[in-house]
Design goal:
With about 210 residues, the protein is α/β, with parallel strands linked by helices. It folds into two domains: about 1-80, Medium-chain alcohol dehydrogenases, catalytic domain (Quinone Oxidoreductase, Chain A, domain 1, Alpha-Beta Complex); about 80-205, TIM Barrel (Alpha-Beta Barrel), CATH 3.20.20. Helices cover about 30% and strands about 30% of the residues. The longest helix is centred in the C-terminal third of the chain and has 17 residues, at about 150-165.
Length: about 210
């Protein structure tokens, strides 16, 4: 199959032929219908070297780029399906509703920011599980005029709100590879201790 791979530091990625992977436990093989480029892909290609890459970036070269993909499940099985972000548009909401009604064995999750309106949009669709994100790197915080104190406050506030509405929630930090590790640790500790959540496959809480 074809893959867009980053093969050498500070050089453009290449379109190459690679073996078709075999899905492992709780994995699926996706036949790609469309693939997007994220700013983080460009950041990896243009900025990273073995000396400058973040401590939490553990992968090595060659590395297949692309995490904004859409397609069809070819084989494998999974316990979880993330159905999209209902607050984005009418179409996104309808897509999430269709996936939820498809009778899948997997748990269907909605995606949202740590914002009450986003959480309410997931509730309106009818999902019982959500993935909740918030920016954590100094670059993202500067772009949106956030402060670390505000981020910590919003994490706790919205995790507690989601829990009060009966949602089973996974929390993760956006742009974590560029975040300060001490702040990253503090935000997860805050989520666990004050958001009253527990750590499982990823950080989750349950009613």
């Amino acid at each position: 199959m074809k893959a867009f791979q980053f093969k050498e530091w500070l050089t453009p990625a290449e379109l190459v032929d690679v073996p078709v992977p075999e899905p492992g436990p709780d994995e699926v093989l996706i036949r790609i219908g469309g693939a997007g480029v994220c700013h983080s892909d460009l950041h990896v290609m243009h900025s990273w070297t073995p000396q400058t890459r973040p401590e939490v970036a553990l992968w090595s070269l060659p590395f297949t780029l692309g995490h904004e993909n859409a397609g069809w499940i070819e084989s494998g099985d999974t316990e979880d399906v993330e159905a999209g972000m209902p607050v984005v548009s009418k179409e996104d909401k309808e897509a999430a509703e269709l996936i939820l009604k498809a009778g899948l064995k997997a748990e269907v999750w909605g995606f949202c920011r740590a914002v009450r309106g986003d959480i309410d949009a997931c509730l309106d669709v009818g999902v019982k599980h959500i993935i909740c994100e918030i920016a954590t790197s100094p670059y993202k915080m500067k772009a949106y005029n956030y402060t670390p104190e505000w981020i910590l406050e919003k994490v706790v506030e919205n995790l507690q709100y989601a829990k009060s509405r009966g949602l089973y929630t996974a929390f993760f930090a956006v742009d974590a590879t560029r975040a300060d590790l001490r702040f990253l640790e503090s935000i997860y500790r805050k989520a666990v201790e004050e958001g009253k959540i527990t750590i499982e496959r990823f950080i989750k809480f349950k009613n």
